Amino acid sequence: MDGEYVLICVAWPYANGPLHLGHVAGCYLPPDIQYRFERAKGNRVLMVSGSDEHGTPITVSAEQKGISPQEVVDEYHAINSKALLDLGCSWNPEIDSRGIEYGGALFNRTSDPKHKTMVQDNFLALEKAGLFERKTMEQYYELHDDGSGRFLPDRYVEGNCPACGEEGARGDQCDACGATYESVELKNPISKMNPDSKVEIRDTEHLFYRLDLFQDALTAHASERQSVWKSNVKAMTKQWLDMGLRPRAVTRDLSWGIPVPLDGDEWQGKCVYVWFEAVQGYSTCARIWSEDIAAANAHPDGAHAWKRWWSVSDEGTTPRHLYFLGKDNIPFHTVIWPALILGLNHAANGKSSADPIEMPGPGDFALEANVPAMEYLMLAGGQFSKSRKHAVWLPSFLERYDPDTLRYYLSINMPENHDTDFNWPDFVEKVNSELIAAYGNFVHRVLTLGARLPTEPGCSPFTPHENHDCVREHEQELERALGSITESLERHRYKEALRQVMNVAQYGNQILQRAAPWKHLKEPQDGHEESLATLAFCWKISRFLAITTQPFMPTSAQRLWDNLGLDGNVADIGWSEATNWSATLGWLTETPAPLFARLDLDEILSVEQGLVEEKPAEDDTVHGVKGGKKKKKGGKKVKEVEGIAYLDFESFMSVDLRTGTIDSVDDHPNADRLYVVKINDGTEEGRTICAGLKEYYKPDEMVGKAIVFVANLAPRSLRGITSEGMMLAADDGEGNVKLITIDGDISQGSQVR
Fold first, then answer.
1. Residue whose C-alpha is closest to residue 75's, from 84, 62, 57
2. pLDDT tens across 81-94, in order?
3. What is the DSSP annotation of 634-668?
4. What is the DSSP string of 3-44?
5. SS3 (DSSP) at 316
6. What local confidence, expressed as pLDDT, does residue 617 receive?
C-alpha cells in the first residue's frame, strides 16, 4: 500500500467558551484543508486534537458561573465539537473511508482517563531520568477570614502591569502591551475571584523541567528547519533560543487537573501544569485512537498502530508531523514540545540527565516536519478574544449562514503571513462577487446550457461533443493550474491555492463566453463543433472544480459533484483525477440546485446588531458579535491640544508595524510622483508598496535600506498597482522627508513594539 504517513496535529481549544472565527482561521480550518488534501493525494493521514479541559481558564469560568469545572468542560466540549462538525471539519467518521490502515481522526478530551494515565506515566519516566529539578518559588496566597487560604495561579491574580502600568493586567501577561512577567511582579495585586481578600507572597515547592539541557539540540534542530518554517515561526523560535532556555515549572498549586503522581504531603493539592500536559495530547490521542478504534477495527498492528504515525521506522523513515496553531503558541510547538519529545526518547532509551541529548533515531518519537502557524484574524481592528467577549462566535454564525461561505472567506483571507481582518461588508462582497458571480454562475451556466442539448436516455448530452482537438490547449492550461494548486497546498499557502482554483472558474467563464454555445443550440453555424466541444469541456472544468474545491468547501463540492450526475463522495476521489480527461461524463436529469444563496448586507447587519443588543456584554453565550471599546471610568483627564487627535491604547496596538528591507525601486507606470517599491518582509512573496517619495529620494538611495512599514493596512489600488502597506517617514514640514530606518541587523518581518 502506497502513501506517506502524515500526522496532523491541531491545537487543543480551551473548553471554557464557544469558538470564535479567530480560532477557526488560525487553528481549525487550515488543518482540515490539509487533511482533505493529503487524503486526496493518497496519503495515510491521522488527525488528532480535542478539548483542553484543565488549567485556570476552566476554573476561572467555573467560579464566575458558580458551577463545577466539569460542568463547564462538558458544556463547551459539546458546543465546540458540534460546531466544528457543522463547519465541515473531518472529525467524523473516526476511520478513514478507504480503510483503517489509512488512518482517521479523533477529537478527544484531556479529561479522558487514558490521557491522564499516559501523562502520569510520562511524568514519572522523565522524573526517573533526572530531567526535573525541585525549586522553591514565590506565589501569591489568598487569605480567608477563617484562617484558611489557597495559592493563586497567575490567572487568579490581577493588578497593574509592571511594564506599562495598565490596570486589570493578568497574572502572567498584559493584554494591553503584550509584556510577560512573573505574577509576583504585578503592582497592586488583588484576587480576581475575591477582590476584598488579603493576598500575600508565600513559598511553595514545585518541579521544573530542565529545558536548559535541550538548548543545543533544539538550536541545531531550528537551524535545520530554516528552509521549511515560515518567517513568524523562525523569528519567535530564535527569540526564545537566543534568550537561553531555563527550567520551566511542570507542577502548580491547583486542584483541577491531573494530580502529580508522586508520594508525599508536599505534592497534595498540586497538579501537572497544563502546558506540560496538553501538548502530550498529540501523542496520547494517537494512542487512544489506536487502542479504542484501530484495534477494534482489525488494524494489522492493533493497539500499536499509532507508532506508524509517531515513530521513526527501523529503516530511518520519519512520518511527517504537521502542527496547526496560532502564532501565540509557536514556542510551545517549536521549543517546549520538541524538548519533551526528546526527553521522552531519552528516558525510553535508559539515559539520564548526565547523557548528551540526541536527535530521534529508529524507534524514537519523531519531531515536527513543519509548524505552519497563522497570524491573527482581527475583528474591527481588534484581536478576536474569548475572554474579552470580542468575537463572532462560530456556533452562532453557523445557525444562519452556509458553512462553506465562511470556509471560503476565511481561506481567501487567511492570516498566513500577517494579520487580516474580518468584516461583514467584505464577507458579503466576496461571497456575492466571487463565489456566486464567478464560480457558482459558471457551473450553473454549463449545466443549464447542457440541459438544452439533445440527448439519449441515460447519456450525457455532452458526450457527442467531447475530445475535440480545440480543447487540447484548455487541458494543458488546467494541468498547469493543478500543478500550481498542488504546490501551493504542499507549502501551506492556502489562500494562494484557493485563488488559483477560482482563477480556473474564471478561465472557464472566459472560454465559455468566447465559444458562445447558446448560439449553436438550435441549428449548426460556423464554429458549431468547436463551440459545443468547449461547452463539453466546461463540464470537465466543473468536475475539476468539484475535486479541487473539496478541501476548502466540502459541502458545496459535494453539491456540485451531485449536480454533475456523478456517484459517490467527492472527498474519496483522488487528487490527480481532476485532470483525468477520459473520465465518464455524468448527467443529472433534475434541475441543478444553486451552490450558494446570495447575501444581503443590510439584512445581515440588522440581524447581527440585534444579537448584540439582546445580550448583555457580560454574557458569554454563543450569540453574535461581541465587544467594541469600553469607556474607562475615572483616570486622569488628558489635556487636549489643538491639532492633535488622540486615540486609545487599544486602537494604537491594532497597528501592526514590521521591519523590512527595500529590494528594488521602480517608477510607477501611471503616476509621476510614485515609486513602486518591492520589500523583503520575511515572506517568500514579499510585498509591494507604492510610495510618493520621488522628490525626496533617488531609487539607488532607497535600495538596501532597512525600514519600518505598516503591515496590516488594507491593500488598495493606486493607479492600477496594488499597494500592500505604508512605509514610515518623518516630515519636518519644510521639504525634508526621511524614511524611518532600523539601527542594526534584525530579521525581516520583525514586529515593532
1. 62
2. 999 999 999 999 99
3. S-PPPPP-TT-----HHHHHTS-EEEEEEEEEEE-
4. --EEEEEEPPPBSSS--BHHHIIIIIHHHHHHHHHHHHTT-E
5. coil
6. 42
Q: Which of 343, 375, 374 is nearest to 359 (CA)?
A: 343
How far is residue 549's CA from residue 544's CA, in Å, rounded to a whole number?
A: 8
* Full set of structural domains in the chain with CATH: 5-121+274-374 (3.40.50.620), 131-272 (2.170.220.10), 403-579 (1.10.730.10), 655-739 (2.40.50.140)
Give the closest residue to 725 by CA, choosing from 711, 742, 704: 711
Beta bridge partners of 191: 157
The answer to whether 671 and 719 are in contact (CB under 8 A) is: yes
Residue 219 grid cell: 538550536
Q: Which three cell numbers stand for residue 609?
A: 446588531
Q: Which residue has the cell 489568598?
A: 142
Contact present, 657 and 752 (Cβ < 8 Å): yes
* Helix, strand or coil, per DSSP, at residue 317: coil
10 Å CB burial of residue 176 (0-12, 13-18, 19+) is middle
Among candidates 397, 421, 425, 396, which has minimal Cα distance to 410?
421
The SS3 call for residue 554 is helix
Kindly write down the DSSP assignment for every residue of 652-719, as one continuous string. Answer: HHTS-EEEEEEEEEEE-TT-TT-EEEEEE-SSSS-EEEEE--TTT--HHHHTT-EEEEESSSPPEEET
Spell out the SS3 assignment of 556-574: HHHHHHHHCCCCCCHHHCC
Instruction: Convert 569-606 to b/e letters by CB count within 10 Å (16 or more is b).
Output: ebbebebeebbebeeebbbbeeebeebbeebeeeebee
Q: Rounded CA gap, 325 and 222, in Å?
A: 18
Cis ω on the peptide bond leading into residue 93 (within 30° of 0)?
Answer: yes
Q: What's the length of the chain?
A: 753
> For 686-728, how does the pLDDT look when each residue is reduced to its tens digit (9 = 90+)?
899 999 898 889 998 898 899 999 998 878 877 778 889 999 9
Closest C-alpha to 398, from 614, 628, 562, 555: 555
Q: Which three cell numbers stand for residue 373?
A: 502557524
pTM: 0.80
